[in-house]
Each structure stands twice: as structure tokens, then as C-alpha cells.
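Justification of resources, computational component.

The compute hours requested in this renewal are based largely on the per-chain cost of generating structure records like the one below. Each record pairs the submitted sequence with a full C-alpha cell output. That output is archived, and it is also reused by downstream analysis tasks.
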Amino acid sequence: MAFSLELEEWVGSVWHRFITRRASPDFPQAGIDLAPRQRALALLFRAMGGAGDQGVEAASERDLLLRRTLLQQIAGTCKQVPLAWCDGRNLRLPSHLAVFPEIGLNEELYRWLALLAAHAGPMRHWGRDNQRWTQRLLQRYPALVSRYQRLVDAHLQLRPDPAAMSPAEAALERALRQALREPGSVSEFPRSERAAWPLPLWLYPPLHQPGAPAGDLEDSSEHLATPPGEQRSGRKRATRIDENRREGGLLVVRLENLFSWTEHVDLDRWSDDSEDPDAARVADDLDQLTLSRTRLRKGGGLKLHLDLPPAEVDDIPLGEGIKLPEWDYRTGRLQANFVNLQLFEPRDCQAQPLPARLQPAARRLRRQFEQLRNDRQWLRQQPQGSELDLQAWLDFHVERSHGQCAERGLFMAQRQTRRDLACLLLADVSMSTDAHLNDEHRVIEVIRDSLLLFGETLSTLGDDFALYGFSSLRRQQVRLQELKTFTQRYDDSTRGKIQGLTPGYYTRMGAAIRQATRLLGSSKRRRKLLLLLTDGKPNDLDLYEGRYGVEDTREAVREARRQGLIPFCITIDRKAADYLPYMFGSNGYSLIRQPEQLPLRLPQLYRQLTQP
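The structure output for this chain reads:
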């Protein structure tokens, strides 16, 4: 029986693949993905006139009422098609294109859609607006005419034959063909009960029109249980429903179905409170999601450590929360008092000396940095000194030849002056730092060692410095761990706090950088260096994932520079080149390709950054 079921499933899967391939109008061998081209298309879109606050994102497939062939109806394909549109915040392009039999044509189609969207405006009529935008683009850039004509010729060969359609559908098809060949030549389009076969060269209306009942999952606080970076289908359509749950009611009980006393377990499990591992896959397959506003209190009296630890084991809060702004790139403004930042001090951290395994490295660093403890500076026009001040002597000689002889020193003397410098180091202690670098070390252990050796070096050097760790749990709680302030000494108490750091939560960089800017801005030193030590890009459970977090961090870095600070990022993320140049500038970060070398590399980087 089991063998027959397995055979039936195997035959069914083979049949499904066969019929789907035969019925699909796409060309899988020439298919390309949006992801590796997303950055280049976004640059092209903005460079050609697209809005600077709009990005390029993947679009979900759309429902169109098409007349399908018998084979397509049997296979169940062509119900949804990949289309492109602009929703006011992003240019939505298909996540995968295989509409042409050549890879070059599909790549050219991506570029054409980005160019067309850069010259598009609000859509009032799908056919007339796309013609007008196409005509405007071709008139402004005549070199695109041949590329556009190549796309049109290739697409017209794939469109259905009007002779095989009903009169209304055939009239609409002929009008669309004419509009593609000669943009602007068709002002009226015949009506048809069924939609025309998709036009991949045109933009379609947004998925959510203003006032539509569908919600937008991208900005909703109720996200899918999918790890960051694994959602492939882009935006989903959502609707809200109100659940009318009736408490009580008529209950019919059959006595023979009751548990005995020995079988009864007093455990409330009215609804399952465990995560469904298939939820992300199911949501990815669905075209429309229905959200309920009913919030269920889950859990059956079990004592668990959830997102936040219990108060008796959590770190000690210092003072009231601090309200900070956050940058919203979609509106182009700072949202005042949007983030709540809370200072913490590690709980139950005993004073500890420097670990024995780090003491040899600390001694080497002390010897190397001892010579930088004080800068030597030449003072000019001194009454006595070890060198003659030639410029002062020349001025004296010229003045004497003109009958003027002002008293001035003619020597140069070397004096020792204290380094006029302050540094604040922000260390990322989010849950990603709990990952293993190798069989022996975790990221958090390397960060602890880096902070310890950095503190040993700067305490020897005599520079003012402060040490903080940061993490976050949505905008309501950005956690800043106070390890050492500018006014505190670096001693065994600070070393104990550093060794007591534990990873947790997420990485809301913008708020941490803004608070560090405030703390560093109060210093009286002439040069102020803000160092950020991290293992990845900004992220959090809410909107902070993706472009939102990157844009907010970039704006926070710009605010720090406007206040005269020098922000610099040190990372061990090998993909940092994809986002750090945009946030910190091409010269504003350093990638440590061997993370285990970070404790020794960090003081050396500090030396390079603070050289006069």
C-alpha cells in the first residue's frame, strides 16, 4: 500500500512538471532574476530622472482575467503574470523574467522598464499614459529607438493571433499592437470582457489604489515568520476582517466522550502557540492574505524567557528613557520622538582583571603606543631654543633694514602637548554576534577581547574615550549598555562589565549613533572620533529591516559629520561593500576579513585614524 502511494505521488509530480512546462509561455532557459541586478537598476532609475526616495523592489504576480488555452486550463497556469508598476514609494519589477527566448532581451526589458518608470507620472489611463511616456522617452533619447523596436518585434511574435479571438478581443489586440509599434497613435481602446494578453513593456496600475480596502503588509506590524532575506515574492495583497467570536452558546455533550479524572490535564491550549515552520512557505504561495484584528493571548502558564528577559535578571536601567528622532526616507523627514532609547548597566558584573590570555598582547600594544602618549610640537619665535627660527630671523632682518626693530624671539623650541582627542566606541552586541566564527570562537567573544585591548591601549595613551554596547527590540526599546563613560576610569570594574556582555535582540544603528553623537558632542576636545564595531547591516523586527534601516543609519552618520565628528565603521561582514559605502562613504569603513584578528587590528586602526 505504501509503495503504491509513493508511486502515485511520483507519477503525479512527473505529470505536473510535464504539463506545466508545456503550458507555460515563458522560456526558463533564458530566465533572469531581479536580485543581482536590483542595485544597478535602482541607479539607472534615479540617474534618468526617477525620484530619489524611491527604490527598486520585487513585485508579486498579478491576477488577470485572461482567455487561456485548453492546455493552460488543464495545467492551471497563466492565472497570474509578472508585471511592473510604481506605487509611489518603489518601482516594482518582476522578481524573475523569462518572457523572451534570449537572455539579452530579458535584461534589456529590465532596463527599459526602469527608464520608462523614470519618465512616468500618475497613471490615469493605462493605454494612453504608457504611450505618452514611451513617446516622451524615445524623443528625448533617440538612441533607444532601435532597442525599443527590437523588444517590440520580439514581443509581437509571442502575442496571440487576433484571428483566433472573438471580435471584441481581436479589436483590442489590434489596437494594442498598433500602440506598441507607433506610441501615441491610439487614443481609444475597444472594450473587452477579458483582459488583453500581458504587455511586459508597459507599466501597470499600482496593486493598491488609494482608498482600496486592501492593506499593505510591507508597513504592517504583523510580519510573516520568515527570516530576513528569505521572502522572495515581494509585496502581498492583504485584507482585514473582523472576527465575531461568540462567547458561550449552546454546547451538546456526549457523556461517553468525556475524559476520566486520570486522563484530564488542566492545560489551556485553546489555540496553538508554537510557530508553524511551513507558515513562510504557505504565505509565499498565497496571492492574498487575510489579517484579523483579534489579538490572542497565547501561552498556557509556562514560564518562558521571551523577547525581553524578566526584570529580576535583566540589566539595570539608568534613568528614564531618552526620546530620539528617526529618519523616514519615504517622506524625507525626521520623525521627532519616534524612538525610545534606554541606558543600561550590566547586572551582577563583578570587577575582574584582564584575562591572562590577553596580557601578552596588551603589553605589546602598550609598548607600541607609549611613544604616542604625547605629541611633540615645535613652538616658533621663542627667546631660546635648540633650533634657529629662520622665518623669524628673516622678518627681523627686513624690519631692521626699514628702520623698525620689534622685539621677537629667534629660536624654535620643542614642547610636549597632550593629544586633543576624544573617542567613543559603539559595539554591536545583537543576537547575530552569538554566531560562531570557527570551532573555537564566537563573534561576541572577539568583540569582548577587542573592547578589552582597546581600553588597555587608550588608557595607556591617555586619550579621552568611552565604551558602549548597543542592541534593540523595535523602536520602543533601543538598549545602550554603558561600559565606560568619559568621566570614569578604565579599571577592573570596566573590565568586568565588558566580560559580562551577552548578545541579544537586534541592530537599530541610527538611534545608537544619534545618542553617541550627543555624548561625544559634549566633549571639549578638538578632534572627536565615533567608532562603530559591528558584524552586519542594520535590522530590527519592524520597518527597520532593509532600506529603511540603511537610510536612517546614513542620515545619522551625516548628522554626526555636520557636528564635526569623524564617524568610522569597523565590520567583519564580508558583504559590507554592498551597503557600508552608501552609509559611511567609501573611506568611512574598514572590513576585517579575518575576524579573529580584530582585537589586534582595532588599536592599529585607531592609530591610523588619529595620526596628525
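The first helix runs from residue 2 to 23. The mean pLDDT is 77.
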